Model the fold of this input.
Amino acid sequence: MKILLYYDYICPFCFLATERVLKVAKEFDLEVKWLGVEIHPEYTVEGKRRRKTEKTLRISQTLETVAAEDRMKIKLPGFVTNSRLCLEAAEFAKGKNRFMEFHKASYTAYFMEGKNIGILEVVLEAGKRAGLCPEELSHSLEKRIFSERIEENMESARKNDVFGVPTFYLGGLRIHGIQPVESYRKLIAKELRREHSLH
Done:
């Protein structure tokens, strides 16, 4: 069976969910299909200053708690940006069998180094770290070769009532938001038993 995981590169909880999902997928011998969706297409690539509100403070606190559980240090950059180029580059990386390397390099650039992943140069830098050819990646992004793939992911998200990321699908199981590894284990085991009883 496949896990469908909807993600976006400007979502810190998607970053944190990555290792957790990979861990349980391996334990249950499940394949993960990563579906990149643009949760804020209205954001500009230049980046916009993130306002300090009660909501962003709450998110930061939750983020720190969840990251500490995984012994990770990530922080919200002081700006928000557009993730479209990054998402298209991830689709290119899939074709080169370097998706996970690119996936992690993009999150690291944004949430650990505070770089603007909306800008072509930063995306190409993440691609280089992931072992991708910068010229090939640049050509793909300039020609918008994988733009349609992102639209297909967005359509899939709409059909599956995905209202935010990360959203995790397995058979009849849908989980929105990040969960502790143990919760994923219990829910997956239950769903696999249910699927098995149907066949």
